[in-house]
Specification:
alpha/beta; Methyltransferase, Cobalt-precorrin-4 Transmethylase, Domain 2; binds S-adenosylmethionine
């Protein structure tokens, strides 16, 4: 049975990859990467000499046709993103769906590994058996409405945030979620890994007083109502 692999890669620390992922990335015919330079860094670390091809959010529909053609030629491919699990706020779901449609018999296999949202949840101390993941919040349209929805959600809420918008987001949380606990997980698995938690007011105050910490990658969690 022909296989197509969706392979999770580290979210920072390059040691966070499974033995199986390293083997699959060595064995496949071609690795589809969000950014080939980022993946090459990982491949070099594990001495994996394999071919890569880019597949990212700006890839044209023709790229999917090319990938389907390679599969029809019998090639075994693996999909990775720059960090974490492909398709989770990353490109890949359309590709996977097209592959399923075109090749109903192909085995699409997940190679599990890191994902920032799961890592953040696991150390947040917030209830994690049930949660709502919102990916990246919209920048403008629908943003306020979403905060109003977050305010009444009865599950832990998790979303991704950039350093450019984290202060704006904390300000909105202050307005909408009151005393509920907010946890900000920053730079997970990296040198400056950090968790800041408290009410939205307290977390915002921390970052206002420590502006050098408004950098890197963020996961934001809000406790249930
Ligand atoms: N597919 C990835 C995953 O499985 O986590 C997510 C990709 S998404 C494009 C990138 C966002 O994930 C970042 O902007 C940040 O919000 C979050 N993220 C990724 N790595 C992180 C890390 N090491 N620490 C905290 N957040 C991280």
């Amino acid at each position: 049975m022909q296989k197509f692999y969706v392979v999770a890669t580290p979210i920072g620390n390059l040691e966070d990859i499974t033995y199986r992922a390293v083997r699959i990335l060595s064995e496949v015919d071609l690795i589809l990467c969000e950014d080939t330079r980022v993946t090459l860094n990982l491949l070099n670390k594990y001495n994996i000499k394999n071919s890569t091809m880019s597949y990212h959010s700006q890839s044209k529909i023709g790229k999917i046709d090319k990938i389907l053609e390679l599969i029809s030629e019998g090639k075994t491919l693996a999909l990775v993103s720059d960090a974490g699990t492909p398709t989770i706020s990353d490109p890949g779901s359309i590709l996977v769906s097209k592959i399923r449609e075109a090749f109903p018999d192909i085995e699409i296999i997940a190679i599990p590994g890191a994902s920032a949202l799961i890592s953040a949840l696991s150390i947040s101390g917030l209830p994690a058996s049930e949660f709502t993941f919102l990916g990246f919040l919209p920048h403008k349209k629908g943003r306020e409405t979403l905060f109003k929805e977050i305010a009444v959600m009865e599950r832990t809420v998790v979303f991704y945030e950039s350093p450019h918008r984290i202060m704006k987001t904390l300000d909105s949380l202050k307005k909408y979620v009151g005393e509920r606990k907010v946890v900000v997980a920053r730079e997970l698995s990296k040198i400056y890994e950090q968790i800041v938690s408290g009410s939205a007011v307290e977390v915002e105050k921390y970052f206002l007083e420590n502006t050098d910490k408004i950098r890197g990658e963020f996961v934001v969690l809000v406790s249930q109502k």
